[in-house]
Structures are given as C-alpha cells and as structure tokens.
Amino acid sequence: MKHIVVTGAAGFLGSHLVQSLIHQGHRVTGIDNLSTGILRNLEEVMVNPRFVFHQADVTQPDSLDILADQQVHEIYHLASPASPKFYQADSIGTIWVNTQGTYHMLELARKKEARFLYSSTSEAYGDPEIHPQPESYRGNVNTWGPRACYDEAKRLGEVFCYEYYTKQQVSVRVARIFNTYSSGLRNDDGRVISNFVTQALTGQDITVYGDGSQTRSFCYVDDNIRGLQALMAEDKAEGEIINIGNPTEYSILEVAYLVKQLTGSDSNIVFLPLPEDDPKVRRPVIDKAREILNWEPKIALEEGLGRMIQHYRTMLLQERVQVQETSSNRC
Predict the structure, then answer these.
(1) How far apart are CA 28 and CA 6, in angstroms?
(2) What GO terms describe the biological role, i.e. biological process, of this protein (predicted)?
(3) Quick check: helix, strand or coil at residue 48?
(4) For a surface tag, which of 105, 181, 300, 320 has the fewest beta carbons within 10 Å of its beta carbon?
(5) How far is it, in rounded angstroms, from Cα 70 to Cα 64?
(6) Active site residue 76
(7) Which of 76, 87, 118, 150 is catalytic?
C-alpha cells in the first residue's frame, strides 16, 4: 500500500483521482484550499480510514507540516484553477499555486524521495501555429493577456519540474492535459461542455463564442485518470512531458448541436464575441502516450456526454426539489 499525496483533491480531476486511488487500496492525503474545489466531491471517500483531507494552501510552506513525519511514495500536484472563469477571477492565486506551490511540492518530493507528477495543460501551446500539437512544440502564448496567468504559470511550473529533475534528481513527469469533462464537472464551471449541457437542460440559449469554427478535443475523465496513473507508474516516463487527451477533434458548433440533440432541448444556439486569446484549434498528438504508457482514450464524446447529461438532469431536479422544500418551509 502506497501513501499518495494529491493536491487539488476536492477539484474535478483531483476528486476522481482520489476515489480511484482509494479503490485501489492506497492511503491518500488530499490537500485543497477549497478556492474552487468542493468538499462534496469527496463525500464518497471522507469516511474511508485510508483517506485524510487537509484544508491548506500549498503556496504556504507550513501547509505541508502534516506530512513531516510521514513516508510519501507519490505526489500528484493538481492544485490550480483550470477554468478561465475561475483562474481569471483569481489570477495572482493561479500564478502562485503553479509556481510557489509547485516549488513547495517538489521540495516535499525531494525530501521524501517520492515520485512527482505535475498537471500542466494544453494551454502551454497557446493559440498554436502547429496543428495538431506534439510535446515538442514550444507554443504560441501571449504573456500580456487575460489567459497568461494560467498559461504562463503552468509553463513556469514545468520549468521548476525540469530543474528539480535535472539538478535534484527528483523523479518527475509532466502531463499536458487537454479538455476533460464528465458528470462530475461543476455545472457553474464556465467551461464549454458544462455550459452547453446546463443551458440545454434548463432551456437557456446555448452560447457559442465566435462563429463556432474553433476546435477542441474532449477527453472523458475516466480516460484522463487512467492516463495520469499510467504516467506516474511508468519508469520510462521519468523526465518526460506527455500529452493526455483525446485526439478526436470537434468544432465548438458541432458540440453545441450534439448536446442539443442528446438532451432533446429546444434551446436556441446564439453567438457571442470570441474572448481574447481564445485558441482557434486544439488537438493532441498522443504518440508518446501510446508508446511509453500504452495508453489512449476509450470513451467517445457521445457516450461521455450521455453519462454527463443523465447526471446533470438528476442534479438539476434535486436542486429544484430543494428549492421547493425551502420555499414550503418558509411558508
């Protein structure tokens, strides 16, 4: 049984990873400052004796004191806002968690001789001039814009990982994660899939930014978590940056029509101005993941959306019932 530390444990990816690790029989310490994470995401594992949750900010050095006398085998550093809605609202905090927070977690890995996985992002490629994007592509990122706090902080986090790998001999691997979705994605998250499904199910207009011709590649969370664990486990992945994502590409307008179809929604599709620095295309080359990790995604977008729509529909119904009960009690 390994002792594994997961930062960002109450977030979307973090909570799914924690649940998977617990189900595999490991002991897990989850760390999250709850700035965007939600404790409800961890309800299933909170009662498990092999899970400990620590509310803390990894940008603060004393946040890791709880681990001072404990052996740690692996560290997944997932802490960071990931949606533009949230990382732009706390731009400085986003910079700090991916730089100072990454430094503190790498120091912990060095001291504990633990394996370390850093969750970077496809945003490291910026608005790419090479398509699709291999890990060797250095990106086209604007340092002076509303997305820079996330894009550039993640890129600097990768540099910290490189320095600790080459100079401190820390067993580091970096995952560049492409768009991920599932039923566990917050319906107020602000990302395209959660927006479309929530809008379709509630009868709102489905808002497409730009003309909808920009493309994305969507990976279901179960596939993503398999990829991250394979990346951590594989010895040959040490010192590597590897794309984790689904190489099947969709235009945003295609996704809007697919959500409308799968939900049976009467919502209108409306078009709004494209946000500044929004990438026009995004699709991973996953040759390294296939060769080194023997990994590739298995869940197609239509199947994953079906699962997500079913969950969101149930969740929205529960919210309506709670509102009605609260209103009745007040009367």
Answers:
(1) 7
(2) D-xylose metabolic process; UDP-D-xylose biosynthetic process
(3) coil
(4) 320
(5) 11
(6) no
(7) 150
